[in-house]
Specification:
Distance between the termini: 39 Å
Structural class: mainly alpha
Number of helices: 5
Helix content: over 70%
Oligomer: single chain
Number of strands: 0
Order of helices and strands: HHHHH
Length: 121
């Protein structure tokens, strides 16, 4: 059963809108930045020192050592997971380009969409 002219026009319009939305999302995508080696090293160091502090606190019965050890472990985990290299910079360059500053000022949802697109590739 063929489509009427009105139905065909609506279908064409919907397809145009769909494709224009897709190109907008893909044209604005960028890399978020990779996990920093320094962040992982600092995180692992904090975790190891935290385990040592926690073990000392448990073996001696001194609660402060246990709390300090736990805080170090927590800080190490956060450092290992959150320290990232900036997307527009390389390891040797210390200057941030205007593009990387514009990427940093984008919204939360746009960064999530970019991350989704990067993982889909």
């Amino acid at each position: 059963m063929p489509l009427s002219e009105e139905e065909q026009r609506l279908l064409d319009e919907m397809e145009r809108n769909l494709y224009s939305d897709r190109t907008d999302v893909h044209s604005s995508s960028s890399k978020l930045g990779r996990v920093s080696g320094r962040g992982i090293a600092l995180g692992l160091l904090g975790i190891v020192l935290g385990i040592i502090g926690l073990a000392i606190g448990v073996s001696t019965g001194f609660v402060v050592w246990g709390l300090v050890g736990f805080a170090l472990m927590l800080g190490g985990c956060i450092a290992a997971l959150s320290l990232r290299e900036r997307p527009g910079t390389s390891r040797g360059s210390g200057n941030a380009s205007s593009r990387s500053r514009a990427q940093a000022s984008r919204g939360f949802m746009q960064r999530l969409e970019d991350r989704w697109d990067d993982q889909a590739r």
